[in-house]
Specification:
The chain has 341 residues and is an alpha/beta fold. The protein has two domains: 4-137, 3-Layer(aba) Sandwich (Rossmann fold), CATH 3.40.50.2000; 154-340, Rossmann fold (3-Layer(aba) Sandwich), CATH 3.40.50. Helices cover 36% and strands 16% of the residues. The strands form three sheets. It has a six-stranded parallel sheet with strand order 3-2-1-4-5-6, sandwiched between helices. Helix 3 (84-92) links the parallel strand 4 and strand 5. 44% of the residues are buried.
Length: 341
């Protein structure tokens, strides 16, 4: 009998989106009698309306994750989460085969592992999508196309467009969606007034109204960008915001302007041009699906990338020293290509 697989999904929005090609390929494989996806409940809407939706099993806590393993009794746990805890819970549940990346000191908990390249004792940054592909390859499954895919219902699309029009967007008008937040930490935040200035210039030069949104707890940041804008940016800070509705917002945008965050991958999945402002992160980690994306970052700093949540030197030069013109130039290149390509 073919084995059953439980995939422990990633814990970050962008990583979940990047995992979709691998998840789809696993679901299509005839090598497994069943493929289920364990996902943290807040991230489950990412896979809603997709061919994968019925395979998702949501979890609210570590204890519930362990319980689901024991209920599902899979032959294989495929770990897209690189945490020690994810491997430990699969081990405790006595899943016979536990496959994942050899990271976080968890090699002893895995039966099958991918080794991540290192240099001088430090991990070499490789694209996350490539790592997920290689982890999937431990099961003998090859994934040729790493382009992420998302789905959204027409009723959600219509509802979001109606909401934007209620908030002042002219019917049929183009807009740039701005998500200035970054869940990982303050070191990844470009100053709100810079976002605002870029949005004002895009309105002035290209007629694109700004729509500013973000995740839970980012209301103050959204408000700061809108307050600094002089071009009637539309704020969604007081509106319901979900990972499902975000799909419709991204799909309908002419351009997405974000920090180093998950919505960049929504844009990739829907083939929407996107400018991502990057500070302390290593660009190699997100070096996939760049056809319609521009990563804007400083390359003249010895301290970057530091991969830290908070600037250890206190100056945040990687983002505070990043000007608006570089971001605007990247945006205009993408808009020009969208018209001519």
């Amino acid at each position: 009998m073919n084995p059953s697989v439980v995939v422990r999904a990633p814990n970050w929005v962008g990583d979940m989106v990047m995992a979709t090609p691998m998840l789809l390929r696993l679901a299509q494989s005839e090598a497994f009698r069943e493929v289920r996806i364990l996902a943290r409940a807040p991230l489950a809407p990412i896979l809603k309306d997709s061919p994968l939706e019925a395979r998702v099993v949501t979890i609210q806590s570590d204890a519930e994750e362990l319980d689901r393993y024991r209920e599902l009794r899979p032959d294989i746990a495929l770990l897209y989460s690189n945490s020690l805890g994810a491997a430990w819970r699969a081990f405790r549940a006595r899943v016979p085969m536990r496959a994942g990346a050899r990271l976080s000191g968890r090699s002893w908990l895995l039966t099958h592992a991918v080794s991540v390249p290192s240099e001088d004792g430090r991990r070499v940054a490789i694209p996350t999508a490539h790592l997920l592909r290689d982890i999937t390859g431990l099961l003998g499954v090859t994934v040729a196309d790493l382009h992420p895919r998302l789905w959204v219902r027409e009723e959600i699309v219509d509802s979001e467009r109606a909401r934007l029009e209620r908030l002042g967007l002219a019917p049929g008008a183009g807009y740039v969606l701005c998500c200035p937040g970054a869940a990982y930490g303050s070191a990844k935040l470009w100053p709100p007034e810079r976002f605002a200035r870029a949005l004002d210039l895009l309105r002035e030069r290209h007629g694109l109204r700004a729509v500013v949104s973000g995740g839970p707890g980012e209301e103050a940041l959204i408000a700061a960008v809108v307050r600094a804008s002089a071009s009637e940016a539309i704020s969604l800070s007081a509106e319901p915001r979900t990972l499902e509705s975000l799909k419709a917002l991204v799909q309908g945008a002419r351009l997405v302007l974000v920090g180093d965050s998950g919505p960049r991958w929504y844009a990739a999945a829907f083939d929407v041009p996107c400018v991502s402002v990057m500070g302390p992160n290593a660009p190699e980690l997100t070096a996939s699906s760049l056809e319609r994306a521009r990563i804007v970052r400083r390359t003249d700093l010895d301290c970057a990338p530091c991969l830290r949540k908070h600037c250890p030197l206190g100056h945040h030069a990687c983002l505070r020293g990043l000007g608006v013109e570089a971001v605007l130039q990247a945006a205009e290149e993408l808009l020009s290509c969208a018209k001519s390509c």
